[in-house]
Each structure stands twice: as C-alpha cells, then as structure tokens.
C-alpha cells in the first residue's frame, strides 16, 4: 500500500484521531499506524520517539504477523490483538483497516494506565480509523 499525501483529508483525519487520543490520555506516549508489510502511515508520539516511525512500523508488522501465525498454528483462529507487558508500560498491536487496507495500529501506554483502559481506548480508536474513507 502506498502512503497517502500528508495533506490528504484521510491522512488529516487519521492524525486528528491519533492526536486526540494522546492529548486526552497523557499516559499514551505513542500511537502508530503502519501497513501489514511494515511501512509507516502515520505516527504521533512524544519527542524522543518521534523520529523512529520506520523502526516502529517494521517492529509492529513483524510482531503482528508472528502473533497471527502463532494463533493459527495453535488452532486459535486469527490474532486480533497482541499485548506486550513491559516494566514501565504496555504495548498493544492491533489489526485494523484504514481506507479499506489492512494495517497494524500500535499504542504504547505507560504503566499509570491500566491495561484494560488502554485496550478499551485502543479499540475505540480502531473504530474511528476503520470509518475513515478517501
């Protein structure tokens, strides 16, 4: 999938939703959307993470593909969400669609935010992203 022009209405709407989530929840330090083959679409994050969107995209798509393969291999169907619990927070990797194309949404939340809340807010963002059209 080719990424859209930064000024396209769909891209502007996507960034608006990502930014709104981070501004309303200061515990969320990164929201990134990438293609399933590892190309960044959009990323909103705190300053020290903002210049690494290529790395996040590659990592996110790889973890998502590995989780999906593992779930299939273990006869558990498709993997919807991969959660990594780290010492200072949680990372959620979720499959979604953006303008009709399969993508991976990554949300990184500090440990001040409960995992259930991070998951709920991530699912809500998925609904908003899936509703975006060209």
Helix content: 25-40%
**What's the main sheet like?**
5 strands, antiparallel
Mean pLDDT: 91
Report the C-alpha radius of gyration, rounded: 14 Å
Q: What's the β-strand tally?
A: 5
Strand order of the largest sheet: 2-1-5-4-3
Q: What string, H for helix and E for strand, traces the elements in order?
A: HEEHEEEH
Instruction: Report the principal-axis shape.
Output: globular
Total number of helices:
3
Present the secondary structure layout.
Layout: H1 9-24, E1 28-35, E2 40-45, H2 53-73, E3 81-86, E4 89-98, E5 101-110, H3 115-130
Antiparallel strand pairs: 1-2, 1-5, 3-4, 4-5
What does this structure look like?
By secondary structure, this protein is of the alpha+beta class. 40% of the residues lie in helices and 30% in strands. The protein has three helices and five strands. A five-stranded antiparallel β-sheet has the order 2-1-5-4-3, sandwiched between helices. A hairpin with a 4-residue loop joins strand 1 (28-35) and strand 2.
Which terms would index this structure?
five-stranded antiparallel sheet; about 130 residues
Compose a concise summary of this entry.
It is built from 3 helices and 5 strands. By secondary structure, the protein is α+β, with helices and mostly antiparallel strands.
């Amino acid at each position: 999938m080719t990424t859209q022009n930064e000024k396209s209405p769909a891209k502007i709407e996507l960034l608006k939703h990502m930014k709104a989530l981070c501004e309303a929840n200061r515990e969320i330090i990164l929201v990134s959307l990438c293609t399933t083959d590892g190309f960044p679409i959009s990323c909103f994050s705190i300053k020290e993470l903002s210049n690494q969107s290529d790395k996040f995209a590659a990592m996110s798509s790889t973890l998502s593909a590995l989780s999906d393969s593992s779930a299939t291999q273990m006869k558990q169907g498709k993997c919807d969400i991969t959660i990594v619990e780290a010492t200072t927070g949680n990372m959620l990797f979720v499959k979604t669609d953006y303008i009709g194309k399969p993508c991976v949404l990554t949300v990184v939340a500090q440990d001040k935010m409960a995992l259930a809340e991070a998951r709920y807010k991530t699912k809500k963002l998925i609904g908003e992203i899936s509703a975006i059209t060209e």
